[in-house]
Design goal:
It is a single chain. The protein is α/β, with parallel strands linked by helices. It folds into four domains: about 190 residues, no CATH class; about 140 residues, Rossmann fold (3-Layer(aba) Sandwich), CATH 3.40.50; about 70 residues, no CATH class; about 60 residues. It contains 24 helices and eleven strands. Strand 2 and strand 3 form a beta hairpin. Helix 7 packs antiparallel against helix 10. The model has no long low-confidence stretch (mean pLDDT about 90). This is Sigma 54-interacting transcriptional regulator. InterPro entries: AAA+_ATPase (IPR003593), P-loop_NTPase (IPR027417), Sigma_54_int (IPR002078). It holds the Pfam family Sigma54_activat.
């Protein structure tokens, strides 16, 4: 290594270089912090970096110590290199990483997203850019960095603002102190930047949005929160002449719940249509793929609900990045990102002939699994307390401490420690709301078990053919509501349907 960097600073700079480009939600981040401070990495006691009541609005002590050391060193090296005309490649790289780290924490780490993206003319965003650009020019003012210009500064500013947005969305919205929650945050960060952030900064920042993301997991586990975090953290160019970003991340997320749309309307909703293309099409209509901003994302929730015909057209969008409106021949380009979610086993849907294998493999370019609440609590039971506190903050601001304590007392006194929370985070939110209003919560444990218990028994081979037919007939009837509809669905006559229905179980299913 070059003698341009004093020997006593080399180890710190190497650790800082790794730290600047590592996934902040990975276990490696905590180890690198200790190494940068010259401590034994085995002294790390935290398992995951998560938002807690203690860390909500304060920086961690290790980060503050690293920042102080980096601030002092960058000014020292800036003065040392001021008149150097050349530096070896390794020295340039280490110094670049040091400046990148310092600029982020000095100008961006503590600003809100709203401040960074406020309109110019004296706004906080304009001030942040000008201070950033001024420091960038000074710290890279050595003749050895004569290839660093305003455009280079603007790109770095855009990348670091993206880092700020991604961290804020993930840290604030994807909660939980358990290892499964930590792995989820780590996976979401990778979905945005990949595992190699240097490569992302060099070349992938524009093209990565062409890769779709598939989020799978049980209902109520926060799949839409994950999708929103990814959509609102896409790269946005910064225009240094106008001193503003080319778009607003607040409008980057376009969610569509496919299960709430009629199958006959899904194609029109997604792709749009021309006037007269079908009965009732009285005017041209823009579809959601056209509404989506070039730097945004369309979120297709419950993608397992799509029929095969729409799947073919969606596959074309993913492969060719083009689509046409219904009744139109003009090809239109889709420039955004596609994020899909499902609580179904798509591999099983493929085997059943209900989902295209080529669409599935296209979606699986980037896959994220959201853990159930039960998985989180099995690994770390005390994580329930933190989740209840954060839910209480949203439900009852100003009274969150009292509401959280009341909820936790009720849970401890009324639910078994092994309660599985079948509704996941959504059920826990409902529990907090119920206790806020009525000081009690009535879980639907028995009903939930009854709804799925017959499937479990069938898979285990514990039902006779007669019991299986009775269970399935009762289940279908609970969904359709009439003997006639059930008979048509099952290919049975009305009398047979009526004889097979378990009246007691049907009543519980409808409660």
């Amino acid at each position: 290594m070059s003698d341009s960097i004093p020997r006593e600073h080399r180890a710190f700079l190497q650790s800082l270089a790794d730290l600047a480009y590592c996934n902040p939600f990975s276990p490696q981040r905590l180890v690198l912090e200790q190494q940068a401070l010259g401590r034994d990495a085995t002294s790390v006691t935290e398992e995951v970096w998560s938002r807690t009541q203690e860390t909500d609005h304060t920086e961690r002590p290790s980060v503050l110590a690293i920042n102080d050391q980096a601030e002092n060193l960058v000014e020292h090296l800036c003065e040392k290199f001021a008149k150097r005309r050349t530096l070896d490649a390794r020295t340039r790289e280490l110094y670049d990483d040091l400046v990148t780290y310092v600029l982020y924490y000095r100008h961006l780490a503590h600003r809100t997203i709203e401040q960074l993206f406020a309109p110019p003319r004296g706004s906080a965003g304009q001030i942040a850019w000008r201070k950033f650009a001024s420091d960038y020019e000074r710290l890279f003012g050595s003749p050895a960095f004569d290839d660093y210009d305003t455009d280079t500064a603007a790109h770095l500013y855009a990348c670091l603002c993206q880092v700020r947005r991604a961290f804020k969305h993930i840290f604030d919205c994807i909660l939980g102190e358990s290892a499964p929650a930590g792995r989820l945050r780590e996976a979401v960060w990778q979905s945005i930047f990949t595992h190699d952030m240097r490569r992302y900064r060099r070349s992938l920042y524009r093209s990565l949005r062409e890769l779709p993301t598939l989020i799978s997991g049980p209902s109520g586990t926060g799949k839409e929160l994950v999708a929103r975090a990814i959509a609102c953290s896409q790269y946005l160019d910064f225009d240094p002449d106008r001193e503003r970003f080319i778009d607003d991340p607040a409008v980057a997320f376009t969610p569509i719940n496919l299960s709430a749309l009629s199958p006959t309307l899904i194609e029109s909703e997604l792709f749009g249509h021309r006037r007269g293309s079908f009965t009732g099409a009285d005017a041209d209509r823009i579809g959601w793929f056209e509404v989506c901003r070039p730097h945004g994302a369309v979120f297709l929730d419950e993608i397992g609900e799509l029929d095969m015909g729409i799947q073919v057209k969606l596959l074309r969008v993913m492969q060719q990045r083009t689509y046409t409106r219904l009744g139109d021949s003009e090809e239109r380009v889709f420039a955004g990102k596609i994020i899909a979610a499902t609580n179904r086993d798509l591999a099983a849907e493929i085997d059943a002939g209900r989902f295209r294998h080529d669409l599935y493999y296209r979606l699986c370019a980037d896959r994220i699994e959201t853990p159930s609440l039960s998985q989180q609590l099995v690994e770390r039971p005390q994580a329930l307390e933190g989740l209840v506190h954060f839910i209480a903050e949203r439900v009852a601001p100003g009274e969150s401490q009292a509401v959280a304590a009341e909820t936790l007392d009720w849970i401890a006194g009324n639910l078994p420690r092994s309660y599985s929370w079948p509704g996941n985070i959504r059920e826990l939110e409902q529990c907090v709301r119920n206790i806020l209003v009525r000081r009690e919560y009535i879980p639907r444990t028995e009903a939930a078990t009854q709804r799925t218990g017959w499937l479990t028994a069938a898979e285990a081979g514990e039902l006779t053919a007669e019991e299986l037919l009775s269970a399935y007939t009762t289940w279908v009837h609970s969904q359709l509501g009439t003997y006639e509809a059930t008979a048509t669905k099952l290919g049975l006559d009305r009398r047979t349907v009526k004889s097979k229905i378990d009246a007691k179980w049907l009543k519980s299913l409808r409660e």
